[in-house]
Amino acid sequence: MDLRPPSVRALMEELQKLPGVGPRSAVRMAQYLLKEREEALRLSQTLVQAHERVGFCSTCFLLAEGSCPVCDDPGRDRTVICVVEEPVNAWAIEATGEFKGLYHVLLGTLDPLRGIGPEELTVAKLVDRVAAGGVQEVILATNLTVEGEATAHFLVQLLRPKGVKTSRIAFGLPAGGEISYADTVTLARALVARRGME
User: Fold this and answer.
1) Using CA atoms, how far apart are residues 69 and 89, in angstroms rounded to an integer?
2) Residue ranges of the Toprim domain (predicted)?
3) Alpha carbons 124 and 138: distance in angstroms, whole number
């Protein structure tokens, strides 16, 4: 017999739909949220507010509340656009403090098996931005997955006739990582992306 009330089962089912949440994590989260009523109410209110206030920038497709802080920043280098799959990827790049250009979020990757082609992504908007002039380089920072690689190759073919330089971010070993623990794909990428020492 299942002792969980129907509402608790429904809550756990919804929690399991979140990325990285399995059955056990869903049980712990549901238990916590039901026990800590104030926390649960604050979470639900914050979630509703985020849905009401946050949207995609119509130019770069970063998540923004009102105007886009990147597109509206006059200090950004407008000759370089870094293309990422999702806003979270741009957040990670921005956290390095190394990139001072603009972003373009594809909102996914090409995945023909799931029916995701260029039309389902923001590819046309990227081409429009490049065609408008002023962009000298497009950095492709899609993930090192089959879909990410296919998307990067597709974009290179699409942008090459526009006369803009395209580059791919280097992938390699993490800082502090040991070579013997690296998978073969990462190690191969590290060798290909090697650079000279000064």
Assistant:
1) 16
2) 79-174
3) 14
CA 3 to chain CA centroid, Å, is 40
Per the CB < 8 A criterion, the answer to whether 141 and 82 are in contact is yes
| Averaged pLDDT score across all residues of the chain | 91
Residue recorded with tokens 């119509």: 58
Please indicate, yes or no, whether residues 111 and 15 belong to a single structural domain of this protein. no
| Residues 7, 87 share a domain | no
Q: Are 84 and 108 in contact (CB under 8 A)?
A: no
Place of tokens 């979470």: 43
Instruction: Kindly state whether residue 68 falls inside one of the protein's structural domains.
Output: no
d(CA 61, CA 123): 11
Give domain status of residue 179, yes or no.
yes
Task: Quote the DSSP letter at residue 21.
Answer: -
Are 33 and 85 in a shared domain?
Answer: no
CATH number of 139's domain: 3.40.1360.10
Q: Can you read off the two tokens belonging to residue 106?
A: 């594809």
What are the φ and ψ backbone dihedral angles of 68, each rounded to 5 degrees?
A: -80, 125
pLDDT digits (tens, 9 = 90+) for 17-54: 999 999 999 999 999 999 999 999 999 999 999 999 99
